[in-house]
Design goal:
By secondary structure, the protein is α/β, with parallel strands linked by helices. The protein has helices at about 1-5, 90-110, 145-150, 185-200, 235-250, 305-320, 335-340, 355-365, 380, 385-390, 410-415, 430-440; strands spanning about 10-20, 25, 35, 45-50, 55-65, 135-140, 160-165, 170-175, 215-220, 225-230, 255-260, 275-280, 280-285, 290-295, 325-330, 345-350, 370-375, 395-400, 420-425, 445-450, 460-470. About 25% of the residues lie in helices and about 30% in strands. The longest helix is centred in the N-terminal third of the chain and has 20 residues, at about 90-110. Bound molecules: S-adenosyl-L-homocysteine. Belongs to the class I-like SAM-binding methyltransferase superfamily. RNA M5U methyltransferase family.
Amino acid sequence: MRRKKSRQTFEHVEVVDAGAKGKSVGKAPDGRVIFLSNAVPGDVVDVMTTKKRKAYFEGVATNFHQRSAKRTDPQCEHFGVCGGCKWQHMAYEHQLFYKQKEVENNLQRIGGVELPETMSILGSEKQYFYRNKMEFSFSSSRWLTEQEINSEEEIVDRNALGFHIPGMWDKILDINKCHLQEDPSNAIRTAIRQFAVENGLSFFNPRTQEGLLRTLMLRTSSIGEVMVLIQFFEDNKEPRELLLTFLKEKFPEITSLLYVINQKQNDTIYDQDVVCFAGRDHIFEEMEGLKFKINAKSFYQTNSEQAYELYKVTRDFAGLTGQELVYDLYTGTGTIAQFISKKARKVIGVESIPEAISDAKNNALGNDISNVEFYVGDMKNVFTTEFIEQHGQPDVIITDPPRDGMHKQVVEQLLQVAAQRIVYVSCNSATQARDLALLDEKYQVIQVQPVDMFPQTHHVENVVLLEKRV
Ligand code: SAH
């Protein structure tokens, strides 16, 4: 009740910007910002607020007086309900404009350092079907659309195989066709759903923690390999094998057919045993002649084609001649390290996940690369003065930290080491900007290149070249 009372309406709000968490931005009459989920810059709308804070409102557009020329038709039937691709209603060129702007704003406002002109963002050739990995959840309690609820018809099938409704841990939107991963992704998912329903295999009930089928992960690679992993809750051999055998026969293109039996509360597979039912326990991805082995738990950039663009920028910025000792911090499975290895004397990769480092070593071996070395551990504990003494003073440091950016101690160590160049790859330009401010003491920003890895979302990757001040 209280919530309803505090709702406000504003008329004729002009939508002027987009960015923050995929929302667009208008202004209330009192000057406060309103974040809107269903509007595009250029729209003129009436707004109903859904949240009120000191500095801003959140709201939805309830009536459109003017529709922006920046709009385009969303491709996906699930747009607006599914939380996945919030920007499908904005033409791609404008998505790129706002991503670039977000990077520039963050670097200027949070970084506050001297900046060169930002290079034009590298857009993704594929604007849909660009992901190589998708995860779906099974649920016996499907999210019902308003239409379904209001209709007289009895709802027979309550099962869902799809995505979590944003903010609802137990509600899954049943997905008919997802525009993020190429086929056979949709074909496999819909076939599994249909087979399960027809054969009475139960979908997981997150409230009572019952049911056979829990999650589905699909990985595809640019050389046509396919991995399917089904996570079961109940350990029931007969229906499990029925489903897996069906998949094996119906989709001979599956390279790796895996399953997990997980009866924990949470559905992460990272601490679970993965069983190979048919084919290999891994698939391969290829980039510039390098092969990368990917198993169920491996990290690999989710947009392979744009990862290639990102890595090329990184390699260019590193300015290698073949003589350099390069450190690749947060190396993951060592993809950047291997990608640049031909142009460097030696590359040293550091990463906290032991399995990733073991993948990195195996891949380097398989790729016949002998001038890379990998070390495992928390960056602030591994990347120390003793480590540098042992492995040598780097000429170039590449760093690609997670969303939170680098630990302060790591930044301090970078200042201490004072390599000639740092290439900073980031998926969060706000934390990157914070780190650049700290590095400003010794480093000047020479180049800024945003790269779009995730069309239809507000996410943007950014590569910055730093050079030691003279
Ligand atoms: N450069 C890689 C992966 C970057 S993702 C690629 O392009 O594929 C960031 C990586 O940082 C992840 O692999 C994550 O496991 C690792 N990481 C996160 N926190 C870390 C820490 N404190 N110390 C070392 N590595 C960390």
